């Protein structure tokens, strides 16, 4: 994974946190929702990543006139033979970039529900599996509201993380201009999709202490009923809390982060580091919160202050449990 990251960094300047989250999503077999203004290398990152892994990459530009068949595929009638043949859509790939996903209506966005959760598509009663590994990275633009459609809650919940991408620093922007206007960089493939599958399996074998799992459960439960965590005043700001998928994503994400950091076990710091990205899009804020300018990140910050992470488990005990 270090070699993959090195190759991507030869092309993409800065965005370290974003790149780390992309690798976490790949190791956890989760999907990523990225929010940021245009021109921040979101498309370039996924395309470069596919090149380093010798994987297939496809990009769908979401527009208001798309129909579900444009994504998953359809049945076409052949006049010569009198039979129907199935044409598979662009979702049959390893890395799928759903660009500006909020530009398409809800029926098109919902076409991704089955493929994101079950990793399969059903066309005319026949089920087709997508290739492994499979990662959907969807982008949306936060500064434009005209001509956009909000994502259905059922689909938002299927994204493992929502990552906010910010502008680069002046030094990074100087390097960006230097690279883009200079000689193009040739990206070298350094891994295969088979090797990635082996890494995903190795990542799932990392040890997670039961106290950390309990912390994840308490944190997610507090988003549903803040009063139980001693924050009754926050209940009016939350209409719906996070689902059990959030608890699973917290544990899986912390596991992948620990794996990237070269450890065989998860520390509380890993879970705290990833909690905001896992929870921010799963909270449904009330009209009162929107009127007062309260954000999901502020609510998550208060919950984590009220529910501190458990102490680091003794390393000797963790190593023993991880090896056993």
β-strand amount: 5-15%
Q: What strand line-up does the widest sheet have? A: 2-5-8-1-9
| Assigned CATH class of the largest domain | Alpha Beta
Please give the radius of gyration in angstroms: 21 Å
Sequence of secondary-structure elements: HHEHEHEEEHHEEEHEHHHEHHEHHH
* Biggest sheet architecture: 5 strands, parallel
The tally of beta strands, per DSSP, is: 11
Helix fraction, binned, reads 40-55%
> What separation lies between the terminal Cα atoms?
26 Å
Shape designation: globular
List the uncertain runs. Answer: none
Summarize this entry quickly.
The chain has helices at 2-9, 16-28, 42-52, 69-72, 106-109, 112-118, 153-156, 170-181, 193-204, 210-224, 244-260, 268-279, 287-292, 296-306, 315-323; strands at 32-35, 57-61, 73-77, 84-88, 95-99, 120-123, 126-129, 135-140, 161-164, 238-240, 284-285.
Describe the SSE topology.
Blueprint: H1 2-9, H2 16-28, E1 32-35, H3 42-52, E2 57-61, H4 69-72, E3 73-77, E4 84-88, E5 95-99, H5 106-109, H6 112-118, E6 120-123, E7 126-129, E8 135-140, H7 153-156, E9 161-164, H8 170-181, H9 193-204, H10 210-224, E10 238-240, H11 244-260, H12 268-279, E11 284-285, H13 287-292, H14 296-306, H15 315-323
Helix pairs in contact: 1-3, 2-11, 10-11, 11-12, 12-14
What are the salient characteristics of this protein?
single chain; 324 residues; alpha/beta; Rossmann fold; Helicase, Ruva Protein, domain 3; 2 domains; 5-stranded parallel β-sheet; two-stranded antiparallel sheet; 15 helices; 11 strands; 45% helix; 15% strand; globular; ATP binding; ATP hydrolysis activity; Sigma_54_int; nucleotide-binding
């Amino acid at each position: 994974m270090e070699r993959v990251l090195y190759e991507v960094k030869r092309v993409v300047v800065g965005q370290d946190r974003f790149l780390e989250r992309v690798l976490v999503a790949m190791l956890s077999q989760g999907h990523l929702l990225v929010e940021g203004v245009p021109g921040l290398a979101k498309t370039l990152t996924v395309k470069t990543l596919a090149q380093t892994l010798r994987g297939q990459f496809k990009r769908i530009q979401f527009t208001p006139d798309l129909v579900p068949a444009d994504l998953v595929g359809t049945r076409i009638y052949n006049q010569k033979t009198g039979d129907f043949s199935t044409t598979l859509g662009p979702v049959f790939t390893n890395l799928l970039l759903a660009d500006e996903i909020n530009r398409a209506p809800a029926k098109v966005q919902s076409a991704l529900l089955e493929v994101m959760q079950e990793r399969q598509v059903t066309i005319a009663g026949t089920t087709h599996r997508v290739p492994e590994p499979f990662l959907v990275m969807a982008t949306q633009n936060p500064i434009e509201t005209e001509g956009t459609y909000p994502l259905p809650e059922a689909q938002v919940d299927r994204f493992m993380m929502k990552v906010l991408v910010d502008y680069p620093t002046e030094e990074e922007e100087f390097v960006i201009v230097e690279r883009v206007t200079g000689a193009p960089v040739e990206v070298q493939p350094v891994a295969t999709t088979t090797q990635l599958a082996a890494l995903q399996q190795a990542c799932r074998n990392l040890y997670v202490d039961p106290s950390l799992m309990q912390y994840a459960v308490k944190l997610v439960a507090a988003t549903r009923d803040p009063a139980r965590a001693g924050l009754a005043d926050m209940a009016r700001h939350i209409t719906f809390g996070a689902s059990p998928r959030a608890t699973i994503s917290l544990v899986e994400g912390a596991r992948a982060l620990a794996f990237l950091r070269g450890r065989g076990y998860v520390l509380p710091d890993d879970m705290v580091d990833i909690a905001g990205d896992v929870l921010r899009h799963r909270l449904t804020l009330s009209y009162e919160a929107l009127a007062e300018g309260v954000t999901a990140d502020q609510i998550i910050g208060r919950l984590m202050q009220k529910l501190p992470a458990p102490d680091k488990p003794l390393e000797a005990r963790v190593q023993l449990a991880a090896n056993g």
